[in-house]
Task: structure prediction
Amino acid sequence: MKKYMKMSQLYSPTLKEDPAEAELASHKLLLRAGMIRKTAAGLYSYLPLAWRSLLKIEAVIRDEMEGIGAQEMLVPMIVPAEIWQDSGRWDVYGPELLRLRDRHERDFVVGPTHEETFVDLVKNELRSYKQLPVTLYQIQDKFRDEMRPRFGLMRGREFIMKDAYSFDANVEGMQKSYEDQKEAYARICERCGLKALPVVADSGQIGGDTSVEYMALAEAGEAALVYCDCGYAADVEAARADIAIEEGPGTECERIETPCEGSIESLAVFLGISERACRKSFAIIAEDETPVLCLLPGDHELNDVKAEHAFGHYDPMSEEQMAEYGLVKGYMGPIGADKRVRVVADVSLRESTSWLIGANEAGWHIKGARPGRDFEVDEWLDLASAKEGDRCPKCGAPLKSARGIEVSQVFQLGTKYSEAMGATFMDEDGKEKPFQMGCYGIGVSRTLAAVVEQHHDEHGIVWPVCVAPYEVEIIPLDAKGEVWDAAEQIANELTEAGIEVVVDDRKERPGVKFNDADLMGYPYQVVCGKRGIKNGVVEVKERATGERADVAIAEVASYLANRVIAERK
Result:
C-alpha cells in the first residue's frame, strides 16, 4: 500500500542562499531545493526529489518508445577501443573522449555515445532483410570530459541519456524510423511540460547528413537559434537564410582614405553608411595549410561550423602570417593580396556589384570594387551565420531569434558506421548491403534542468504535474490535534486516490514551511490551519498561478484528484 512521505523523513537538505558557483536558475534552484549535490566539476548526485522527477521523465520516454516499437536494452558503459578504431572515431573524436587502460594494458573508452557498440552488437546477428527494421535503445549514464563543465546539469561531464539506434534495409525505411523518432521526441517534450522547437542542426561529431534538435526555449540557453512563424527553425550553426545585401558607395573602383579604427562599426560611422553596405574580411589558414580570405556582408559573422565544413580545422591568421600574404589587419581585402591567398565569398554577395573592401594598407579602403572586374572570387560558399531580420529561406518573412537548450537530437546516419565497421545484411536480391542507420538521443538529466529553466519564478521551482517529484504538499500549521488529524486524513485520501503526497510535519514556523513549499515547487499546496479546520475547510493553493480556494475537508481528495489526473500527460 502506498504511503505519503513526511518531510521530517525526506532527504532534501535545502539551502537558504544561492550557491556562489551557480549561474543559471535551474542550477541555483536544484541545489537550493535539495535536489542535487556537486561531487566534483561536472559530476552531480541526484537526491531523492530529483531522482523521482528523472524517473518520471524516463517513464514518458519509455512509453513513447514502446509506442513506436523501439526495444529497450543496456550495453556496457566501458567500450573496447577496437570498435572505435574500426569506426574511425578513436583518432578524431577529441579530448572529450575519456580513454583508459585496464591492468592488461588494453585500451577502452568511457562511452560518450554508443553508435559503435550497437553496430558491433548486431552486425553478426541481424543477417537478413526479413529481420529489419529494428530499433534498439537504452537509458544510461554517459561521460564526456568537458574542458569547462558549467551550468549544473546543462553541461556536465557525467549525465543521463537515452540513446536509440535504428537499423533499416533501405533509405526509405531509415527515413521512416527517423520520422517516427522525431515525432515521438516532440511528444516527449510536450508531455514533460517543455515548450520546444524542432530546429535544423549540424550533425557534429555524430555524423550523418540530416539532423534535427529539439530546443527548449530559454533565455539562459547556450544555443542561439533563428525561427519563423511559418515553422522554419534552425540552430545558427546550421541555419540557412536569405541575407539582404546593400550595395556599397560608388560604382568605380577607387581608393578612399579611412582614418578610423579599422573595424566595420567605425568604418560605417565614418562614411555615414550602414554596416550592411560594407564587406567584412576574415583571414584563416585552412586544414590543408592554404591561406584563405573569407568575405562576408559587413553586418554578419563567419559561422565556425560552416567554415569547418568548408576548410576543415582552421586557425585565424596571425599578424605575421597576414604580413606574409600581403594582408593588413583591420584593412583586409582581396585587391593587393598575395596570389597564394584563396578568396572565398559568402553566396549572399554573388549578385552584388559595388563592394567596400579593405585596401590592404592601414587607413585606406577601396569603394566601388566589383568581383570579376577588379578582383576574382575563387569560390562562393555559405559562410555567414544567420541572424534576426534575415529572410526565412522557406517563406521569405523576417527571421526571429531566440536562445534554447538542446534537450534532444535525431540523426540520419545512413551507412556511415555500418560501412566503416563491416555491418551488413543479406538483402532480398541476395546481395550483402550495409545497414541504413539513424541515431536518436535525449539528455534525460538535461531535460530535468530545462524544465526548471522554463518553470520557475522568484520564489522557486514551479513543477508541471507530469514531472513533479510529488504532486501535492500538505502543510499543517500545527503538528498535533485536530489540525494534524485533518492533514493526515487528507493525505491518506489523496494517496488512496493515486496522488503522490508529501506532508510537512516538521516543527517549523509557518513562514519556513511556506518558503520551502514554494522553493521545492510542488504543483498543489494544502494549508491546514486551526481557523479553517473549525469551519471545516482547508486552503488549496495552485503553485503555478498562486490561486487559492477554500475547499471542504471532505472534498479535498476529489477536488485535487480530478485536477492532478487531468494534468498528467
In short: The chain is about 25% helix and 30% strand.
